[in-house]
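User: I've been trying to design a sequence by hand for this structure and keep getting stuck. Would you show me what you'd pick, starting by listing the structure so we're on the same page?

Assistant: Good idea, let's start from the same input. This is the structure you sent:
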């Protein structure tokens, strides 16, 4: 898991036509995505919570969660990488907003934000 996150961060920093703003937005998205990932793993271990992501279903396994979040993290980076300005920034900002809202919702429902995997 940590290797995957390091790889994504490395790829983001190597984007040839990326600006510092692109990198900052992608890193912000990545941090929120990983927080959501961690909270979803907490849901898997909890009897008090159910997952609301329709793709994962209410009771996903840890493997399903890990595959989903690793795949969507990489897919998000690649879409951002191929989009031209200003669409890249729009893509990143929309998904930052979505992830922020999900993490905030989960936190309000008793899940923590920690990066222990």
């Amino acid at each position: 898991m940590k290797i995957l996150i390091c790889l994504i961060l490395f790829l983001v920093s190597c984007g040839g036509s990326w600006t510092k703003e692109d990198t900052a937005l992608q890193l912000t998205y990545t941090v929120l995505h990983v927080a959501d990932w961690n909270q979803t793993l907490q849901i898997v271990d909890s009897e008090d919570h159910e997952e609301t992501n329709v793709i994962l279903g209410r009771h996903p396994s840890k493997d399903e969660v890990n595959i989903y979040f690793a795949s969507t993290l990489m897919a998000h980076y690649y879409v951002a990488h191929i989009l031209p300005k200003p669409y890249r920034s729009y893509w990143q900002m929309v998904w930052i907003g979505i992830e922020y809202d999900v993490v905030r919702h989960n936190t309000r429902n008793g899940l923590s934000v920690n990066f222990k995997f």
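That's my pick for every position. To get oriented when you compare it with your attempt: The mean pLDDT is 87. The chain has one domain: 20-108.
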